[in-house]
Amino acid sequence: MSLIVHKYGGTSMGSTERISNVAKRVAKWARAGHQMVVVPSAMSGETNRLLALAKELAPSKLTDAYNRELDMLAATGEQASSALLAIALQAQGLESVSYAGWQVPIRTNSAYTKARIESIDDKKVRADLEAGRVVIVTGFQGLDESGNITTLGRGGSDTSAVAVAAAMKADECLIYTDVDGVYTTDPRVVPDARRLHTVSFEEMLEMASMGSKVLQIRSVEFAGKYKVKLRVLSSFTPWDIAINEEAKSGTLITFEEDENMEQAIVSGIAFTRDETKISVLGVPDKPGIAYQILGAVADANIEVDMIIQNISKDGKTDFSFTVNHGDYARAMDLLKTVVVPKLGAQEVVGDTKICKVSIVGIGMRSHVGVASTMFRVLAEEGINIQMISTSEIKTSVVIDEKYMELAVKALHKAFGLDQAPA
Ligand code: ADP
Ligand code: ASP
Ligand code: MG
Fold it and tell me: How far is the CA of 266 from the centre of ligand 1 (A)?
């Protein structure tokens, strides 16, 4: 008997009909003798709906007290879908019980709206499994040490599922979603994108962190740390397909570079509109500048991604970096009111109309000229590159957001990602 964790995303849980289908699929696995823990997301649109209600009442409150209530609010979405799934499973004749994150409990730190899981107590879940029940655990949420409900950041149900699988030493964690696996890029943007049969853990980590929302980055980190066997697959196949066929479908995240792996130099292209660019202009060019700007930003718990400093002219320089959309207003305010006056910089300018496009592939380690191909392709399309950053297995550029689709499509073709590997 195996212990299997299934995770179903918002679209997969999007209506009572779909929930009923999920229940039939889970029941099939349970009847085949597997112990089943299921982690659902809120029904599609529900988290957005709830958060929009809060924004109607108080558009830009960024206090802890406000974020605490956002988490209280958003967590109800998963509580509802979990209860509905337990009811649907009972309707299939199975014993099933659902638990909110705080009931398990899934313990997190107190960083409301982006909390991190610290531990999971699996006693209750195990006891239910032993008693023959299918256990539903809400995705996306936990409990901090003061007893507050927290949420794990958008897309966080993936992380809940992988963390539960890790804590319970599950045999496999299956992430059911509205696409049939991980593609070379988002198939909604590039119809020619191809499904990957396997993707290495490192590539998946880069793709997720560069914006491919098919898996939340922290779920991939958990899978790597605890060696969770992780597969992404479709919840839209007929629920009654044979388990052995289903278990081979989709995309497997692999930890070893075996011979069967597709040997492309670039395996995927990720992109995101979630970032914004901030430039501090006319900063006196002297030691400690980067620290004074970025130190203040870090102290405000704002994550910075790409950074560039221009060469100096007349003793002054320009300094640019990117932050997440959600942190943009706070970062601009901090720089304008605190940092810039202190530094004697000329001005702060922001740009919210940018995007980041990244090429990812472990083949980049052993091949030179991959980044330059990327720059050539963008140049041929007349796309100006504003910032560049590289790591061993990825190159990212910041460009004007209006060119995002064009850039992704051109790069996808140029790196042959639309062709099946030889
Ligand atoms: P869920 O609600 O199941 O968690 P998400 O919307 O969070 O689903 O993630 C699935 C979506 O991720 C897909 O519908 C697809 O548009 C998008 N996506 C982005 N990049 C990729 C990729 N490389 N491969 C597959 N899907 C991707
Ligand atoms: N419901 C949450 C969200 O929309 C979590 C998730 O779907 O993974 O972000
Ligand atoms: Mg998701």
Answer: 19
| CATH code at position 123 | 3.40.1160.10
Residue to mutate (ligand 2; options 6, 7, 39, 41; most atoms within 8 A of CB):
41
Q: Tell me: do 224 and 304 sit in the same domain.
A: no
Residues in contact with 57: Cβ distance below 8 Å, sequence separation at least 6, in sequence order: none
Residue 405 CA to ligand 3 center (angstroms) comes to: 21
Q: Decide whether any atom of ligand 1 lies within 6 Å of the 40 Cβ.
A: no
For the chain, count helices (H), then strands (E).
13, 20
Kindly state whether residues 278 and 396 are assigned to the same domain: yes
Say if residue 397 is in the same domain as residue 292: yes
> 233 lies in a domain?
no
CATH of the domain at 345: 3.30.2130.10
The 10s digit of each residue's pLDDT in 50-95 is: 999 999 998 766 788 999 999 999 999 999 999 999 999 999 999 9
Q: Which domain does 409 fall in, by range?
A: 263-422
Q: Against a cut of 0.85, is the pTM above it?
A: yes
What ligand has the least distance to the C-alpha of 213?
1
Q: What is the pLDDT of residues 198-236, one digit of tens each?
A: 999 999 999 999 999 999 999 999 999 999 999 999 999
DSSP 197-238: SEEEHHHHHHHHHTT-TTS-HHHHHHHHHHT--EEEEES-S-
Number of domains in the chain: 2
Residue closest via CA to ligand 2's atom 5 equals 155
